[in-house]
Amino acid sequence: MKPNSKIYFASDQHFGAPTAAASFPREQKFVAWLDEIKKDADAIFLLGDLFDFWFEYKTVVPKGFVRVLGKLAELKDAGIPVYFFVGNHDLWMGDYFEKELNIPVYHNNQEFTFNGKSFLIGHGDGKGPGDKGYKRMKKIFTNPFSKWLFNWLHPDIGVKLAQYLSVKNKLISGAEDVKFLGKDNEWLVQYCNRKLATNQYDFFVFGHRHLPLEIELNATSKYVNLGDWIGYFTYGVFDGETMKLETYTR
Fold it and tell me: I need a surface site. Which of 86, 114, 147, 194 has the fewest CB within 10 A?
């Protein structure tokens, strides 16, 4: 990392939900945050569900999000690395970000090391015990045949249908997402502890949960869930030594 720089993490913006008009103020706030952190950002990690729905046809992408995409392009052009992790709402992300914005896209957890600190980073969906129904559903949606079938829907039909179903998803407004289950019952905590049995990580950073969490797993390892940009507007900051959550209040 460059001296006096920081690495920033954010997740679960769900732009487009519940409507484009209702989402727009949140998009403006997020763009303002990106503009503010560019002064000292060594890298920016976006951990999925940036959009409430995203599907890339061969020559078509969903309408909207121009300010967000433009700001990400500006940051990349300025030499700031940006990394994108696919979430469960934008799991049909293709190569648009890579070709148009030069932003690498990851579909699975990735390991990074910064200033000698090890990170395991991902969106967080489908990890840990339980939630077998969702895991089965994800296998169906990520199957190439399912994607091929959806591709045959006209974009005006396919995108509208998917947006309707996505907004109905419990992850947007479900009461379960704002209730802390207890350290022993949080499934991502259980997943992290299982990983620690075979590998040492200083920090686990995930999204998906929609609840800001900082949990010490042991004396040298910490789990951070980034919350969301729907009600919390929280994000993670690594200053080279410590990792913590902050809230954007502008």
Answer: 194
Residue 171 has pLDDT above 70, yes or no: no
Structural domains in the chain (count): 1
User: What 3-state DSSP class applies to 236?
Assistant: strand
Is residue 1 in a domain? no
Interatomic CA distance for residues 32 and 250, integer angstroms: 8
Task: Using the structure block, give the residue that is written with the tokens 């207890």.
Answer: 182
In a domain, 43, yes or no: yes
pTM: 0.88
Query: What H or E segment, with its residue span, contains residue 163?
Result: helix 155-167
Tens digits of residue pLDDT in 75-97: 999 999 999 999 888 877 888 99
What pLDDT, on the 0 to 100 scale, is given for residue 177?
A: 58
Judging by beta carbons within 10 Å of its beta carbon (0-12, 13-18, 19+), is residue 111 exposed, middle or buried?
A: exposed
CATH of residue 41:
3.60.21.10
Supply the range of the domain harboring residue 179.
Answer: 6-247
pLDDT digits (tens, 9 = 90+) for 144-154: 766 667 666 77
In the DSSP assignment, the letter for residue 175 is G
